């Protein structure tokens, strides 16, 4: 392992891989990414990886649109195939209240991304397996969809490597040296790397990484269960992701034969990312299936294929922590994405890389700086509950 680096990125989830890729493309000197297990070994690989330009904060809308353009041109920009399925994203709702639909359609419109309002009748035509009540409408985002989070991350890391970054898997960061208020080195279980700049992309472990530099981050880890179901013959996996705000459940295809589904929202439980139960409690799986069957009767006959519980790295206001940490020169963060971090990541890494090298970012990430300013009207982000 190299003894010195211009920039050390900690964590090989989608954020670390994206940042390493964009830094390497910018040719900023020696960029080293350290991952304690393997690329995409954390919650990234279990992500729903759904992409929709519907949020209540313009920064997310812009990031998701820019990431969508990257996914559409993945082979040219990154190389390979991120498994992007642009089948559209459908929000089913009985209100246009912004907090209920998890976004402000004016922001989407202003940003120039298309969406289409559907009547109850049009919903029934688009989703013949669903039963829709009077007053229920749809908001269809035709450019939405989902990607393969594992391939997305591995391909970003591979591309970073091709552009000259060093990617070290199986290397755990154990300490960060700070001298006179400046980062000087990263200690690992495979040796020390001297560096003036570290970026904390450690997701559910990022508060621990921050503590190594003497920075307290208020990130809590919350479990998010997902269930898998065999597709019944009478339903199809063709058509948009079905995000049902009335029953508070989403359903999206995983290949042709399997659906993944989850409830909106989270329990209040806080867990240790190194010691939690990754199964789905039977009661939760039953409740989820009931919610789904309220809409899609055919799912009564869909065998359950089990599920898994993965982790959200939640900040108090639901917004991520991105940018330099003022107190410690050379300590940057890109973490605390609070269940919303997959879709913004491919483009977000570019804006963060631009900030690091001192140029104007394509998309201003100031909304996510830490510590937060206390401007009046800053809203708590709860859009993450609306997958
Ligand atoms: C079930 C689920 C569904 C989701 N659905 C969506 C969705 O539909 N759309 C969306 O946009 N977002 C979604 N998200 C959120 C999104 O997946 C996450 O915000 C994003 O993947 C977080 O990526 P990350 O790179 O920040 O962190 P992680 O994936 O947690 O990666 C952090 C990495 O850091 C490594 N690491 C930790 N400590 C150390 C150390 N000491 N030394 C070296 N390496 C270390 C870990 O091993 C890990 O690989 C979902 C999340 C979950 C859990």
3D structure, described in words:
It is a single chain. This protein has a domain at 7-48 and 149-218 and 317-385: FAD/NAD(P)-binding domain (3-Layer(bba) Sandwich), CATH 3.50.50. Helix content is 25%, strand content 25%. The chain has ten helices and 19 strands. The strands form four sheets. It has an eight-stranded mixed sheet. A six-stranded mixed sheet has the order 8-2-1-12-19-18, with helices on both faces. A three-stranded antiparallel sheet has the order 9-10-11, with no helix packed on it. It binds flavin-adenine dinucleotide (FAD). The site of flavin-adenine dinucleotide (FAD) has 41 residues, from α1, β2, β13 and β17.
Task: Summarize this entry quickly.
This protein is of the alpha/beta class. The protein is 25% helix and 25% strand. The protein contains ten helices and 19 strands.
What is the element layout, followed by pairings?
Blueprint: E1 7-10, H1 14-25, E2 31-35, E3 50-51, H2 58-72, H3 74-77, E4 89-93, H4 98-101, H5 105-110, E5 116-118, H6 120-126, E6 137-141, E7 145-146, H7 149-162, E8 166-169, E9 173-179, E10 182-188, E11 191-194, E12 198-200, H8 206-212, E13 220-230, E14 241-244, E15 249-254, E16 258-263, H9 282-295, E17 304-314, E18 321-324, E19 331-335, H10 345-356
Parallel strand pairs: 1-2, 1-12, 2-8, 4-14, 12-19
Antiparallel strand pairs: 3-7, 4-6, 5-6, 9-10, 10-11, 13-16, 13-17, 14-15, 15-16, 18-19
Bound molecules: flavin-adenine dinucleotide.
